[in-house]
Amino acid sequence: MNTSHLPYGAAEIVAIRSTGKRPADMVLVSMIGPLRETNPVVIAQPSRSYDWRFVVALPVLIVATTDTPNLAGIVKAVDSAEPDYLSVWFADRQDGINIQIDGYRPQTKSGRRMGAVQRATFAGLGSTESAGDCLSQIAGQVKRQAMENADRFDAALVDMATVGFRRIFGKAWRAAA
Q1: Is the pTM above the cut of 0.85?
Q2: Hey, which end of the chain has fewer CB within 10 Å, N or C?
Q3: Torsion angle, CA of 66/142/167/115, rounded to 10 degrees?
Q4: How confident is the model at residue 2, as a pLDDT?
Q5: What average pLDDT does the structure give for the chain?
Q6: How far is the C-alpha of 90 from the C-alpha of 26, rounded, in Å?
Q7: ∠163-127-80 over CA atoms, to 5°?
Q8: What is the DSSP string of 119-160?
Q9: Are 35 and 41 in contact (CB under 8 A)?
Q10: Residue range 99-111: mean pLDDT, rounded
């Protein structure tokens, strides 16, 4: 594999894979620059084309913003390398979509929105705000959406969902508007 066609940080993953090993954690592909994370981070420029074969059968999360140029083309290129898991996290919205999860591909054109648990797990990723502030932001978004849809469901289901959200978000759920 020609390392000149790899994004920054990918050569280390290629070297590990050449010995028959793989990264222990999800590979973060950052389209927004360096990330302060313990996961392997690969930094890519949206304007460049890369060889993505190093992500074959690996879990991959693309970290971008809603205005990242050519994001659909980037996702398609990474997806063609057949990662085991592929999602996109929008750091500016603290929200994301799943493209493929353990071989399952949601049957919609744009993927499936991340659920509350996934969003809480990624809270703060790619943001300049603290993880706690981002968790509060996500809790508020989820709470607003849940309240908008509450009238469509039986009261018992709404109560059960509220209990689940409290468990996921803790204090952030109670503080959310």
Answers
A1: yes
A2: C
A3: -50
A4: 57
A5: 90
A6: 16
A7: 90
A8: HHHTTTTT-SS-HHHHHHHHHHHHHHHHHHHGGGS-HHHHHH
A9: yes
A10: 66
- Taking the CA atoms of residue 45, residue 138, residue 58 and residue 35 in that order, the dihedral angle to the nearest 10 degrees is 40
Q: Which amino acid is at 109?
A: K
pLDDT on residue 123: 94
Q: pLDDT by residue (tens digit) across 159-176?
A: 888 899 989 998 888 888
Cα–Cα distance list, 142 to 67, 86, 114, 155, 166 (Å) = 22, 22, 11, 18, 11
Residue 108 reports pLDDT greater than 80: no
Q: What is the pLDDT of residue 110?
A: 56
* Contact (Cβ atoms closer than 8 angstroms) between residue 132 and residue 170: no
Q: Which amino acid is at 33?
A: G
Pair 41, 13: CB distance under 8 Å: no
Q: Give one DSSP letter per residue of 58-127, joined into a string.
A: SEEEEEE-TT-TTHHHHHHHHHHT--SEEEEEETTTTEEEEEEETTB--SSTT-EE--HHHHHHTTTTT-
Query: To which residue do tokens 């981002």 refer?
Result: 134
pLDDT tens across 33-68, in order?
999 899 999 999 999 999 999 999 999 999 999 999
Query: Which are the contacts of 102, defined by CB distance < 8 A and separation ≥ 6?
Result: 84, 85
Place of tokens 């994370």: 37
The pLDDT value recorded for residue 80 is: 94
